Amino acid sequence: MGSDVRSWVKGSAIGTGAFGAVNLAWDESTGHAFAVKSVSLSSSPVASVQSLEREIQILRSLRSPYVVAYLGDDTSQEPRAGPCRNLHLEYMPGGTVAESAAKAKGRSLDEVQVRAYARCVARALRYLHDVAGVVHCDVKGRNVLLGRDRRVAKLADFGAAVRIADGSRGGDGRGWVRGTPLWMAPEVARGERPPPSSDVWSLGCTVIEMVTGAPPWPDMRTNDAAGAMLRIGYGGETPEFPARLSDIGQDFLARCFRRDASERWTAEQLLRHPFLAKEGVITGPSPRGVLDWANTEFLDDDDDDSIKERCTVSSSYDHQAEEMMDCARGRVRELASDRGAFRWCSDGWELIWCSESKEEEIGEEGTCEGRGESGDGNAVIGGAGVTAVMVVWAVSVCLEWGRVWSLDVITCCH
What amino acid positions are annotated as catalytic residues? Predict the structure, then answer.
């Protein structure tokens, strides 16, 4: 669609943004549905128009599978509102995370869902902070939208967003206090310039919202914004952690809710936390080997784009499979190269179990029997006809947390 949309029809209202109403719309030439965020140029406050223009400028520069896509913008003449400025956005028919959490209140969203949605938001924040140079400034359940199957979540509503490189007044003259009070980080509530870590605090608040079906700080009155900001900014407190959240989830929130912004974990670090690092949803069969992944490395550019487009439609988590393919290809290159053997001595790794066999032939089922600590462990390490020399199980151990963070199986064959 893009900014060349010429003829479209506005439908019913589907929500409101920070400074504008959002309606469902249809492109008359294609029949495609999209969302349109509009402000009246004649009756809306100047701040609303400026906010929408700024949102348009920011969204034009963003491209991430975890951010609602910009499809174009225009100015239209409405029968009642007069001239309106419009932002065309990807339509997410699954509603918002806040709505899903509120409907599940009393029984809460399944923690697998909470982790999956939080993972999507953390990936959006990693992209915004590390690649795009943007702080969202209003992360909350209402601004996390769901697709039709409600498996993928995307961050929306950049009406309060600022660029990290903006000037002393946020680039729009509004100052630094922006966002929704109960989701604000302490430094934002105090009127300080919002660092990227302020979005991390808001992500923690959103996790609480998903688990409980209600905003964080339940003892604060939602109609007392000044009182809430005073307490959040200067009270020295953090939101109460939901009792039903797992120990790993509680630890995740502790990383988000450091009152000193410089001590909070980054989005990149959070994505390696056990709460987010392990996928909670599998939408397709596990690959039997590296070559089972769709291989786009040797395709033409046009073919590559078409493959990626088809993958995006076929599975809600295929964009992550792309990252896994890159990692797998890198390992294969290292194994096949003459750059030397693995560096077995590496900080943070401990040898847990090693089993050697002498020219042990692997059967048709691809299993090789060896003895672990229990004496009868099995390890699947390859296809028929592969001769195993050594299988090493290595575990990356987080000394600070005292838990296993990741498991890697390294197989040496000839």
Answer: 138
